[in-house]
Amino acid sequence: MKKILVVRNDKIGDFMLAWPSFAMLKQSLPAARVTALVPGYTAPIARLCPWIDEVMVDPTAKAGKEEAAAFRAALRAEQFDAAICLFSNGYNAKLLWRAKIPYRLAPATKLAQLLFNRRLKQRRSQSAKPEFEYNLDLIRFFLTDNGIAIQEPHGPYLSFDAAELDAQRAKLVAETGLDTERRWCFVHAGTGGSANNLSLDQYASLIKGLGRSQPCQFVLTAGPGEEAMAASLYQKVAGEVSAVVYDKNDGLQDFTRSLACADLFMAGSTGPLHIAAALDVPTVGFFPSKRSATPLRWKTLNTEGRHLAFCPPRGKDSETDMGLIDIDEVIAEATAFAGRYWS
User: Fold this and answer.
1) Neighbours of 135 (CB within 10 A)
2) Is the dihedral of CA 174, 176, 180, 186 positive or negative?
3) For residue 314, which of 283, 293, 284, 285 has the smallest C-alpha distance?
4) Which of 16, 166, 278, 310 is 20 to 30 A from 158, comparing alpha carbons?
5) What is the dihedral angle through the alpha carbons of 263, 253, 9, 96, rounded to the nearest 10 degrees?
6) Residues 176, 57: Cα–Cα separation, whole Å
7) CA nearest 99: which of 138, 135, 139, 56?
8) Residue 193: per-residue pLDDT
């Protein structure tokens, strides 16, 4: 097993929850060349992962015929010894089968499993464990199947050296006017179009409540297309707390270095939350309580004690209603949580 392809070609949050899998695989097989197959928008952060040797960009099912054919040819030319597909669908199954990769492992789900020659029953729909644990189970299966001793990974999974962080802090101060004498609390009110989140009024109440008890400055972040949302949130809190809008950056790697400068990060279950958690920044996350989206299923990669999760009460009519999260309770718990790291 000299060349191994690991496929996680979906959203950024899902990809971040595969980092322990890359760590386990590379640490257990240090001489192997590990390649990650990801979509274009995830590739920049994949290149920051210390356990990935090469990144291949998947043009995805949206590619035109010529581009798709060229990509399939390039994939086949790599002559991978094995492919581990961390989630299974028809597109990935056909892609790896056509590439003639001799060992193809994926979760045993749906008809797509017929094109994989190694399968693991997982029943992810039960959401009985975190997503990153389901991913790790596939790596454990692969290593055991090939007689390789398993090296269990440990976080933090992403870090930058002190010089990089000092430079990034200086850049943020120059661009936004942040105060270096205060703690920086990042707040991401966007959803990325895929996750439930608090309303802007809830975030405003949370920011003002936390600001009354903690001497911090709030950094309101925004992804592409979310700039107006961050600006609106700023208007709701301006004059009552110290806050800045951070809605421009030099790409995903630059944004990630900025998150590494945060003293606290608050968001819904989105890509930025999972990036911050991989950096082991203390995080406060907001999740639905429906089974497929709970804080358990999408548990962050923070080390023990550095994550706080909230969700609405369980119930058919309430589990996705983020308006039912008690903001006063969040303020009280988040204040104590932040205080443990800011004292």
Assistant:
1) 25
2) negative
3) 293
4) 310
5) -130
6) 33
7) 56
8) 62
- Contacts (Cβ under 8 Å, ≥6 apart) of 155: 20, 278, 280, 301, 302, 303
d(CA 287, CA 320): 8
Domains belonging to the chain, first-starting first, are: 3-145 (3.40.50.2000), 163-342 (3.40.50.2000)
Tokens of 273: 């939350």
Tell me which residues of the chain have a pLDDT lower than 50.
none
Reported for 70-75, long-range contacts at CB under 8 A and 24+ positions apart, including other chains, are 72/98, 72/99, 75/99
The amino acid occupying position 288 is P
Report CA-CA distances (Å) from 157 to 34, 55, 343: 16, 18, 25
Per-residue pLDDT, 143 = 98
Q: What does residue 66 show for φ and ψ, rounded to 5 degrees?
A: -65, -45
Rounded CA separation 343/338 (Å): 8
pLDDT at residue number 316: 74
209 token code pair: 């409540």
Q: Where are the beta strands (DSSP E) in the chain?
A: 3-7, 33-39, 54-58, 82-85, 103-107, 118-120, 183-188, 216-221, 243-246, 264-268, 283-286, 307-310
Measuring CA to CA, how many Å separate 153 from each of 84, 140, 156, 308?
Answer: 18, 11, 9, 22
pLDDT of residue 341: 86
